[in-house]
Amino acid sequence: MSNIVNDLVEGYIRNTLQDKSGLLRDLEVYAEENNVPIVHKEVSDLLKVLLKVQKPKRILEVGCAIGYSSILFASTLGEDVEIITVERNEKMIEKAKENIKLAGFEKNITILEGDAEELLNGVSGEFDMIFLDAAKGQYQLFYDMVIDKLKIDGLLISDNILYKGMVAHDDFVIRRKKTIVKRMRNYLDYICKCDYLDTSLIPIGDGVALSYKKEERGDINA
Ligand code: SAH
Ligand code: MG
Hints:
α3 (about 40-55) packs parallel to α4 and α4 packs parallel to α5 (about 90-105). About 40% of the residues lie in helices and about 20% in strands. By secondary structure, the chain is α/β, with parallel strands linked by helices. It is globular. The mean pLDDT is about 95. The protein binds S-adenosyl-L-homocysteine (SAH) and magnesium ion (MG). Magnesium ion binds near residues 39, 159 and 160.
């Protein structure tokens, strides 16, 4: 269980939602067995609904892992979508490439190999949706590099924002995670108070933030 939601409630939701089939199901099993932190089931259902409503044509993802979420996006949206996803772990990259090929989405999904800190500034074009799902202590940094690439009316989704509940309350914080937790709290404060975004923090999975971009950020960083 994810630690942030009452176990009974989460158990009920998980038993009720529809299980995936085919490759996505196989990837869930692989992720579970190999401790790969893919999106929680409730979050993947939320993402699917958001994708169907927003119909993004270009998506930027930070944190590809084995390609589960990218393949989920592509299979939800179909052939028109272009997904650029960043990953620095070589083993993950290898697995992701295999999986993307198996899924038949080589044309839709491009993996940028390396550290997002170094690669994100070089990503060109605009995006309808940006999914932050990588090192939790670096969200503000990633944000600063990508927010101008998000179109107005675009959606920024940040995953794992409650980090096993630690972000919500000091009682849950383990010592060596203190800095990450502090950084995540600062990031959430920022995206919630930022006047060019409308943000909603949602306590499902490991916590997910949805931020709708209303206008360009001013010349804050200019
Ligand atoms: N989005 C995936 C899960 C991503 S798990 C899914 O739901 O299916 C987070 C991944 O981010 C890990 O594979 C990790 O290697 C990668 N990562 C973390 N920090 C990164 C960084 N700074 N640059 C690139 N990749 C990073
Ligand atoms: Mg995640």
